[in-house]
Amino acid sequence: MAKSPYKDTILLPKTSFSMKADLLAREPQIQKRWKQMDLYAKIREARAGREQFILHDGPPYPTGEMHVGLAMNKVLKDMVVRYKTRRGYDAPYLPGWDCHGLPIEFKVMQELREAGETPPKIDIRKRCKKYAETYVKKHKKQFIALGVSGEWDAPYLTFLPSYERGVLSAFAQMVGEGYVYRSTKPIHWCFDCETALAEAELEYNTKTSPSIYVNFALCSSVADLFPGLKPLHVMIWTTTPWTIPANLAIAVNERFTYTAVTYEKDGQSTSSIMAADTVEKVMAAIGATNFTVGPTATGKQLIGLRYDHPFMERTGPVVSAEYVSLEEGTGCVHTAPGHGADDYITGLNEGLEILSPLDSKGRYTDEFPSMQGVQVYDANDKLCDLMAEKGALAAKAAVSHSYPHCWRCNNPVIFRATEQWFVRVDHKDLRQRATEQIQDTRWIPGWGQSRITGMVADRPDWCISRQRSWGVPIPAFYCANCDRPLLTQKSVEAVNEIVGARGTNTWFELEPDEFLQGRFECDGCGGKTFRKEEDIFDVWFESGTSWRAVVQQNDHLRFPADLYLEGTDQHRGWFQLSLLPSVALEGVAPSKTVVTNGFIVDGSGQKMSKSKGNFISAEDVLGVVGADIFRLWVSSIDYKDHIFVDMAGIQEMATSYRRIRNTMRYLLGSLHDFDPKANAVPADRMLPIDRWAVAQGNELIRRVTQYNDDYDFHKTFQAIQNWCAVEMSSFYLDVLKDRMYTFAPDSNERRSGQTAQWLLLHAFVKLTAPVLVHTAEEVWQTMAEAGLLAKDEPAESVHLAAHPEPADVDAAPELLEKFGKLLAIREDVLREIEKLRADKTIGNALETHVTITSTDAEVLALLTDEQKNLASYFIVSDVQVAASADDSFVPGQAVPTLRIKVEKSAHPRCERCWNFRPAVGDHAEHPQLCDRCAAVVTGG
Description:
41% of the residues lie in helices and 17% in strands. It contains 30 helices and 30 strands. Strands 10-8-9-6-5-14 form a six-stranded mixed beta sheet, sandwiched between helices. Strands 4-3-15-17 form a four-stranded antiparallel beta sheet, with no helix packed on it. The protein has a four-stranded mixed beta sheet with strand order 11-12-7-13. Helix 1 (23-37) packs across helix 26, helix 6 (161-176) crosses helix 17 and helix 21 (647-670) runs parallel beside helix 24 (713-742). The two termini are 29 Å apart.
């Protein structure tokens, strides 16, 4: 086909901005440029002296490959920081890692066990540090590849002396104010990891346990309460047979009514006391179909009775406890003060021994000689057999129930009484003050407030000691003469003078007196010779004091922080365990706002985690789709709920990305011959449709600003996607093509459209910059090279530019209302055009002639006023507004009063603009052109 002589007169879009993103190759190049220009430092310099916004980074563990959940959290934080920076805040971002604790030591100890090595603590610590450094380096590289901007050359690491100094500073103050004490109490204990565990280190999984009913024979006379029943027992129910050796009491509720039930089973008759309201279900559970209910007594009347232990040489009392309920069991609760939180309190109230005959590996000690060395869960069946042999076992079954497991080794844990260091949660009304601070904090989503309020209300004192090697040591000493602990604010500060300068390895290298220097003596015996504590801090105490170690100790940050943003599991963890010391020492919560993201879950709804091996790695995501598409996916999800993710879902986001990229490319291409200084059209000379388009851009700015202020990033994504797909691609940019391509270059109509597109492009690239950090930068550099940046805009990077403000273009409400009606009319017309295209009457909409009218006078008046513009709005060659309609017209749907007739045009086609117009052929020199195109090519 011969080339059209008018092809070169068409002003087609031109831009160096490629349609092909090629993100895997282009993103590293952009990041390299940012590093060379030290962009982060330039951003900080540009915002110096402004009001601050501080997002304090909750430290992740540097263990193994980084999974997509952590990548999502970091991208969310980066979006916040970048948005706040664009809004004019000085918003530094100091990332960090929680390098101490069981997750890393667990990995290192696995390697040591496999190698048959048992090195001293100091060597274990060195290996742990090396392991942490390896993954910090890997994680940092991946975060940078994700486009996360921050102080990557100087992150905070919890093994650095500067951080450890902050932890010990907070601890010294808590000791001085009386929050810290040492006591023997039952705590969650992992016998595989051989350490105490905090609530935040537990995962509740289903476990199958023995469900047993046991008769404890009374040795007190009860003839006055239950005459004629001898021998008489008290029946208990438990799912932890292994705790029976530590039984020291049976608890009842004084308010309940108890009865003696005589039942027959296996040819034997037994009489047992239980709560009257439990008889039917207990008899069914033990398989006793023939039973007789005897006399009753109140729980209060049972208090003080004594019973014989089924197989230990001791007796125990019946005691009172309000927590005894009728929901499960018999209303008589087996009580082992060394193996349960409620049991412990009861033991203290009754003056009972805190007995826990288990070692650190969960094996019975010589306090239970007949099973010494047997591990607790191996002992369950043996204990049941022993109680059956003694005639005490009434029934045994299996029950599946939710049970705490160690978060690291995934084994079930036990309650075990050991001597530990604790923080008093009720000291100086800390629990109440913390609750008040929760109310004063903004929680997103709102249910986070009630969730953490309940957790703080129910939590016991905080066990802060761990029996491990890798962490900040608890700087306590014990008198060599009387074993009395030495722990004062001044003694901790003395340790911190050395540790704060040289690190906590010194604790394992120096002798006690090198810290104490003879300045301290035992409060008990006056001795001056001490040994060091071997326990370390709970890792949650370390990370929970990061507000002191990081935020307060860095001059460029500010306490309290403005935002904490972490996963929903941190209500038990970092959120709560930062709140308590912050309120204790500073009187305020560590953050003004707390945002919670949900878990990333796999196809079966299971939380993705490295320990379960069901995760997608960040490395895989970066290698398949690149950073910007992943970031766009993060912005698209409602992160406040649990998020299902698979690689296919992330890859599908490429479609949305292409829509945004193509919109940017079209706008850039349309501005190839536009000089803002010379060609921009004043608002009063802009066409109404262009003012309407700018108004839509202004509305997008307002909506995105509000959504981002509310941390509703998925709404920002939806707004941007709809703007691209609806207002822009399917209407405005489509309508513009004829004007941009075929009108005279300097015509007011064309320059008006370019002015609108220039304003829209400026706003659009800035709005997308916090998410599409690389793509927005690529667009910005293309704009800079083309001279399309506004006056005083920073050409170096889009990330130095401010958040867009609505353009100063008047769009009166009546204009917006008018175009709302025109868009509805357009919808009806396009539907009728599509019918002709479907039946092959036409090939495209320009081949059509549209006749239109309305039975509504107001709509008809609108059509008449806009008749000269209707053809461009509908993208057809000609539109005639008729006074009335006949039967050949079709009624509208979006506008029911509309009447439409669409026909194939009878006019010839213009070879330049492809419109079918009656004036084609009228110009002698250019008979192939319509009058408008002839005027353009002749300069007329």
